[in-house]
Amino acid sequence: KTVTIVEPCPSKTSVLTLGVTCALLVLLYVSTIFCYYMKKWLSPRKMMP
Does the entry feature the keyword Transmembrane helix, yes or no (predicted)? Predict the structure, then answer.
């Protein structure tokens, strides 16, 4: 028995959108933490532009 979705289901689109949104949020979170720690490690303490 094969389970295939023939008709376009709105839940599939919402799941895909949710997955993309979660992926973007995780990417933003990781990049923010990465930039924060790279600034913290690479720059001296009292370096203000």
Answer: yes
